[in-house]
Structures are given as structure tokens and as C-alpha cells.
Design goal:
The protein is an alpha+beta fold. It is 26% helix and 21% strand.
């Protein structure tokens, strides 16, 4: 399998593109993969391998390479890029990349199979569950700290992101990505 992956990746990490000796590149089987073939593995350098651990601290500067790897034609690379970008969703550049990324339905289902379901749902003012990608409307004027503007009632926020805290969502208003209290929104 290692030779297959090396040939597919031209001897470089499929996420960051770091060319290295064969010993430092290793096959990484994506969790929740349909099988264990080379099609479900990604060739990674040591740094990218460490970034795939859920409890690791992500190196946001190193992972800016996801802006390139997300366009790979290899579904396993697309899946890993999608999962890492979702873990980095609090970064504006990662959220922008997620908004641009298109995955075929079967690839997106595979990518989302790797997510652990949230224990507590994020709810809007009416108790409707919110999920990433939903559109909401703000129901109360909100002063945005540090941005010197007020998010007015009635403003639509499209393609929201969920945060670690189920009481908060993330969205773009006036071109800035901000954290919004979910209870001050209504699902569209």
C-alpha cells in the first residue's frame, strides 16, 4: 500500500505537500472509512499526522495548506481536509475555505461520518435545533464587541457554523466572522 500511496502522491505529503524521505511519510487510514484500501488512506508527513489526532493542538499556520489540499481529486484527501477545516472553523480563513469547498454527496457523507455527535444541541430562540450551514435571523439588536457596530434585528446570517459551546453560533455580519448567542436568533 505504501508504494501505491507514494506513487499517487508523487512522494509528498498529500496535505501539506512536504517532500520527504519514504521513512517519514506514512499511510494514515481515515477513521470511519468504508474499507482499509489505499483509497481510504492518505500519505502524511509527521507534522500532518500529529494534526489528525482529536486531542492535539492544531498548528493553524501549518494547516493553511488545507487551502490547497481541499481541491485534491482524491476523495480521502478531500475528507481529511474537510474534517481538519471543521476543527479549525473558528479561524476565518478556514471558514472561508469551508464555504468554497464542494464535495460530492457520498464523499461529504463519509467526511461527516467522522464527526462525533454533539451531546447538547444548539437551539434558536424557538427551540429549533441549529446545524452548521443553516441560515438564521437575528431577533434582537446586538452590540458586537471589538468591531464597533451593532448587528440589527432582522439581519439574516447565512451558512452559520457551530462552536464548541452549544449556546453560541458563528456567522458573518458586515463581512466579519462573529460569535452570536444562539438564543438571539431564529432559524429561517
Amino acid at each position: 500500500m505504501q508504494e501505491t500511496l507514494l506513487a499517487r502522491a508523487n512522494g509528498a505529503c498529500e496535505i501539506c505537500g512536504a517532500a520527504s524521505t519514504n521513512a517519514s511519510l506514512q499511510a494514515f487510514l481515515l477513521p470511519d472509512s468504508p474499507d482499509t484500501s489505499a483509497n481510504c488512506n492518505v500519505l502524511l508527513c509527521d507534522i500532518c499526522t500529529s494534526q489528525t489526532q482529536d486531542d492535539s493542538v492544531l498548528d493553524t499556520q501549518h494547516l493553511r495548506c488545507l487551502n490547497q489540499s481541499m481541491w485534491s481529486t482524491v476523495p480521502a484527501v478531500q475528507v481529511l481536509s474537510y474534517r481538519l477545516l471543521n476543527r479549525l472553523a473558528s479561524e476565518a480563513w478556514a471558514q472561508d475555505a469551508l464555504e468554497m469547498l464542494y464535495l460530492e454527496d457520498d464523499v461529504k457523507n463519509w467526511a461527516e461520518d467522522g464527526f462525533i455527535e454533539a451531546k447538547e444541541p444548539t437551539l434558536d430562540a424557538n427551540g429549533a435545533a441549529l446545524v452548521a450551514g443553516d441560515s438564521v435571523t437575528i431577533i434582537k439588536d446586538l452590540d458586537v464587541k471589538g468591531a464597533n457596530f451593532t448587528a440589527k434585528r432582522g439581519v439574516a446570517v447565512r451558512n452559520i457554523g457551530l462552536s464548541e459551546n452549544p449556546l453560541h453560533i458563528e456567522g458573518k455580519i458586515n463581512g466579519q466572522r462573529i460569535v452570536i448567542i444562539a438564543a438571539y436568533t431564529k432559524k429561517n
